[in-house]
Amino acid sequence: MRLSRAEYRDIVRSTEQLRPTRQCMKMLKDRFPNHSQSTLLSIFSLEYQKRTKRTISRHHAADVIEGHYQRYLNEAKARPTAPVLLEMANEVDLSPALMARLVLDRFLQDMNGEMLSKPVLNSMLKDPSLIPDQVLAKNIYQCTINDCCYGPLVDCIKHAIGEEHEVLLRDKLKERNLSFLAVEGHIVHWIESKASFGDDHSHRTYLNEQFWSYWNRFGPGLVIYWYGFIGELDCQRDRGILLKDCFPTDIVTLCHATHQQSPESTEGGQ
């Protein structure tokens, strides 16, 4: 989906007060019924990640972590069946999965007298049944399944979506036995798949870190943002980089020689 900058900004404004929960995503979809859920989620995820980067340092302060942990202990004791961690995360505008990580890490320090390795912590976040405290395990699980931007569940979904779009692109290229092709009058030697929405920040980063290096090595190419992009960003066509939101249907095959290897990289939801 190709959005004008005005449309994009309207969506971004609507995300400013939302939390990374599935309930909030439903609210966003209700507000913009003509946009796909995938596009809205991708835009929201990008904006929420920017917000988190601006504020995460204050949540990592030792006194703040201790405050979160002691509050969790008190409220979980008073309300053992309530989603305490999820409520706390939403109240302080912190990703539920990140809140879960902070509190679990502090709990494990309390239990073992020292910090455990990241692999141990990550294994418990992925499988809360490994956590020796059942109430905390339930709270960690609630945070994980209700967070649409961070956490092990989101990571798995992003990876699967990225793989799916990479396979889709590879199959379409193999079907046509393409070496290089023309799209809307432009020669294309490589295609980059991004299973995310292309906003200003992410596209600028990709241009500097990936796309221009591909252009230098392979020549002109095509970037597919499967969940859409800001239309005004498609301004490098004369220099050899096209943007699309799907595999082009109006292609002209210029060579049926053996398939030329092109750079492949998939971004899950980002």
Account of the protein in words:
The protein is mainly alpha-helical. Helices cover 56% and strands 11% of the residues. The protein has helices spanning 5-15, 22-31, 37-59, 62-78, 84-91, 96-112, 118-126, 134-146, 152-176, 200-218; strands at residues 2-3, 180-183, 186-188, 190-194, 221-225, 229-230, 241-244, 251-255. Strands 3-2-8 form a three-stranded antiparallel sheet, with no helix packed on it. Strands 4-5-7 form a three-stranded parallel sheet. The longest helix has 25 residues, at 152-176. The protein is elongated. The two termini are 15 Å apart. Residues 256-270 have low confidence and may be disordered.
Low-confidence segments, given as residue ranges, are: 256-270
C-alpha Rg (nearest Å): 22 Å
- Can you tell me the overall shape? elongated
Instruction: Report the order of strands and helices.
Output: EHHHHHHHHHEEEHEEEE
Approximately how much beta-strand content do the residues carry? 5-15%
Alpha plus pi helix count: 10
Q: Strand sequence of the main sheet, in spatial order?
A: 3-2-8
Q: What is the average of the pLDDT values?
A: 88
User: Percent of residues in helical segments?
Assistant: 55-70%
Beta strands, count: 8
Major beta-sheet overview = 3 strands, antiparallel
Structural class: mainly alpha
